[in-house]
C-alpha cells in the first residue's frame, strides 16, 4: 500500500500511471517484435540476434549524451516525447504489413529507432523518481514503480502472444503503440517544477560526460554496480536471443504458450518488488543482493533441460520464470535504490546513463553472441552455456563492496552534513 505522502503526491501518481503504460508497451514488444521476425518473415537465429542488437545498440551509441541532456532538461519532457515517438514509429510495421511492404530492412530500421527513444525514456525515468519524492521515500517509490513493471510483465507478454495468435504478429504491434501513447499523455500532466543543470559555457557536453564517468569510477559501490550489471546484461542478452528461438522451434510452443510462460515473470517480479521494500531493512542490502542474484540466475539453468511442448514443460517454464522474476526483481529494485541514494541529485541522469552505457551497452554484443552460438551449436547447448555464464555475476558480487552494504545506505558526500 502506498505511504500517505505518496498518495498525496499527484505528480508521482502520474509518473506511476505513465510508467505502467510504458512498461506494458515494452513488455508486449518483447514478444511481438521478435515474433514478427520469426513467424511473419521467417528469420533465422542469426538474424534474430542482429534484430535484437539493432534495438539495443543505441544504448552504446547515445547513453552518455542522453544522460547530459536529461540533467539539463525536464525529465517529464524527455519521457513524454520519447514514448510519443515510440508509438508513432511502431505503427510503421502494421501499416507496411497491410500494404504488403513489410520486410526485414524495415523491421531493423524500426527496431533501431525504437531503441533510440527507449534510451531517452529509460535514462530520464531512472532520474525521475528522486526528483519527485524525498530520499527516505525512494525505497517505497522504487518498489511501487517496479511493481508496475511486474504487472506489465504479467499482462504484456500474455497480451502480445494472444494478439499474435488472434490476429498476426505485425498487427499485434499496435498494442505497444497504444500503450506508449497513453504513457505520453499521463507523463505530460506532471507539473512539478525542476531546476535542470544547464551549466555554463565551460560546462560543455564532453565535460559533463566526464563528470558522470568520474563519479561512477571513483565510488566503489557505483563502480561495482556497473561491472556486475555489465556481466549480467551481456549474458542475459545472449540467453534471451537463444531462448526466443528455443521456445517456438525446439520446444515447438505456440505464440500464446510463449506469452503465458513469459508472463510468469510478472507475478514473480511483483513479489520481488514487495520483498525489495522490506528485506534490505531486515537483512541488509548486501546479503539480499548476493543471494537474490545467485538464486535468480541459477534458476535459468533448468530451461535447456526441458523437452517437448506438453503441459509439464509449460508448468516447469512458468516455475522457472516465476523464480527468476522474484529474485531478479528483488536485485533490480535494490540496485536502483543503491544508485539513486548515493548519487547527487544534479548527477542522477549522467550516472544512470554511464551505468547504462557500461552495462546495457554490452547487450547488443550479447545478442550477437547468442545468435552466433544458436547458429553454430544446438539451441539447447547454447542456452546451457549462457545460463552458466550468468552465474559469474553473483560470484563477482559476493567479492565486491556491494556484499558489505548494510541496512542503511550512505548519502552523497555533500548531503551527509545535512542529514
H/E series: HHHHHHHHHHHHHHHHHHH
CATH topology: Growth Hormone, Chain: A
Strand tally, please? 0
Structural class: mainly alpha
Query: What's the CATH class label?
Result: Mainly Alpha
Provide the number of structural domains.
Answer: 1
Mean pLDDT: 81
Please give the CATH architecture. Up-down Bundle
Tell me the CATH superfamily. Answer: MFS general substrate transporter like domains
| CA distance, first residue to last residue | 27 Å
In percent terms, what proportion of residues is strand? under 5%
Taking pLDDT < 50 over at least 5 consecutive residues as the criterion, the unreliable ranges are 198-202
How much helix, percentage-wise, in residues?
Answer: over 70%
Global Rg: 20 Å
- What profile does the largest beta sheet have? none
Per DSSP, the total helix count is 19
Shape: globular
Characterization of this structure:
The chain has 419 residues and is mostly helical. It has one domain: Growth Hormone, Chain: A, CATH 1.20.1250.20. 79% of the residues lie in helices and 0% in strands. It is built from 19 helices and no strands. It has helices at residues 4-8, 10-40, 45-72, 75-90, 92-98, 104-132, 138-166, 169-187, 205-218, 220-250, 255-263, 265-283, 285-299, 311-342, 348-359, 363-376, 379-390, 392-398, 413-416. The longest helix is centred in the C-terminal third of the chain and has 32 residues, at 311-342. It starts with a helix and ends with a helix. 58% of the residues are buried.
